[in-house]
Amino acid sequence: MFRPLLTLAAATFLLAACETASTISEEAASSADSGATSASSSSTSTASEASSSTSSSSAASAAAAEASALEQARGELMTIGDTVLFGFDSSALSADAMATLDKQAAFLNAKPALRVKIEGHADERGTREYNLALGERRASATRDYLVARGVDGSRIRIVSYGKERPAVVGSNEEAWAKNRRSVTVLN
Fold this sequence. Notes:
Layout: H1 2-30, H2 32-80, E1 83-85, H3 95-110, E2 116-121, H4 128-148, E3 156-162, H5 173-179, E4 181-186
Parallel strand pairs: 2-3
Antiparallel strand pairs: 1-4, 2-4
């Protein structure tokens, strides 16, 4: 019982498909003459779309290359050292800090297009206000050292986070020593 219905449905679909194909063929043949004129305008718009697509893809590839170069520069900065540490309640640069900053200055002088932000940090001891001021003094000391080594000061921005962003959580001298720092970050 289902077999005759299934056969009838298949035959109906087959006839409908054949008629649709012949209708499409006839329409294509009759519009071939009028299509010649629209084909030239269509190819012109396709060419301008391709040109627009090419320029946007080249802009996207330039942005991707710039992002890749920035990531490579970040890696180089981390390799030479992006962090300098400070003593308790001090913004004076140690010999180790100056050695790291000398490397940073050479790196930044070799890449004059890079801009940096220097973040000043403090340990958890002291008031919020005091630690913000101390973090700013540490960031300023770092910036001033880089400027003295030839880095253009307009490329450097400073910010203080005080005790708000510890590198290491803990209430002991080991944690505090790692939180008394300035960090150079590429923008």
